[in-house]
């Protein structure tokens, strides 16, 4: 929780240190593996470390849609769109989660499937919990980064 709080305040060194302290004692802590790897991906930092942590997370919890999404988003940041798609396809089947569906749309767009991407973005918007660019993505029918 301390790592999350520091991250939220933009104190990334302290955040990383808090996560590392937990992982030193509990290397399979799912909450830390998930949040730490996802926040690193959003910051586009230590992406290989994030990949290793999110991969371990999915190995431990292969049916958890949120964890699959985290791993897929790390892969997305590493530009491994094909592998990201595999995980998002599974995660998207678990229900309508706006974040997962939007991420899936982003990956589809990167793979050249713009029509399917727009469909996912529309589903994501309906589900809620999307980025503030979802309407523009749908209207412009393109990924906005």
In short:
The chain has helices spanning 2-8, 12-25, 30-43, 47-60, 65-77, 81-92, 98-110, 114-127, 134-140.
Radius of gyration, whole Å: 15 Å
Give the CATH class of the largest domain: Mainly Alpha
Terminal Cα span: 29 Å
Number of helices: 9
Per CATH, which architecture of the largest domain?
Answer: Alpha Horseshoe
Give me the secondary-structure category: mainly alpha
Q: Structurally, how many domains make up the residues?
A: 2
- Major beta sheet summary: none
How much of the sequence lies in strands comes to under 5%
Q: Give average pLDDT, whole number.
A: 97
Task: Note the run of SSEs as H and E.
Answer: HHHHHHHHH
Tally the beta strands: 0
The CATH homologous superfamily of the largest domain is named: Tetratricopeptide repeat domain
The percentage helix is over 70%
What CATH calls the topology of the largest domain is Serine Threonine Protein Phosphatase 5, Tetratricopeptide repeat
- Shape from CA axes? globular
Low-pLDDT runs of 5+ residues are: none
Please describe what this structure looks like:
- The structure is a single chain.
- The protein is mainly alpha-helical and 145 residues long.
- It has 2 domains: 1-79, Serine Threonine Protein Phosphatase 5, Tetratricopeptide repeat; 95-145, no CATH class.
- Helices cover 74% and strands 0% of the residues.
- It has 9 helices and no strands.
- The chain has helices spanning 2-8, 12-25, 30-43, 47-60, 65-77, 81-92, 98-110, 114-127, 134-140.
- Helix 1 (2-8) runs antiparallel to helix 2, helix 3 (30-43) packs parallel to helix 5 and helix 8 runs antiparallel to helix 9.
- It is globular.
- The model has no long low-confidence stretch (mean pLDDT 97).
């Amino acid at each position: 929780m301390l790592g999350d709080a520091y991250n939220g305040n933009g104190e990334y060194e302290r955040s990383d240190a808090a996560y590392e302290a937990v992982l030193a004692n509990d290397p399979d802590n799912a909450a830390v593996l998930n949040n730490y790897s996802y926040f690193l991906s959003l910051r586009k930092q230590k992406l290989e470390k994030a990949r290793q942590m999110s991969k371990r997370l999915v190995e431990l919890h292969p049916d958890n849609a949120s964890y699959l999404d985290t791993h897929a988003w790390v892969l997305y940041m590493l530009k491994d769109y094909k592998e990201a798609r595999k995980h998002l396809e599974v995660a998207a089947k678990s229900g309508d989660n706006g974040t997962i569906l939007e991420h899936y749309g982003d990956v589809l767009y990167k793979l050249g499937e713009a029509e399917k991407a727009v469909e996912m973005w529309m589903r994501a918007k309906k589900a809620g919990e999307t980025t503030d660019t979802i309407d523009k993505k749908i209207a412009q029918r393109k990924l906005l980064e």
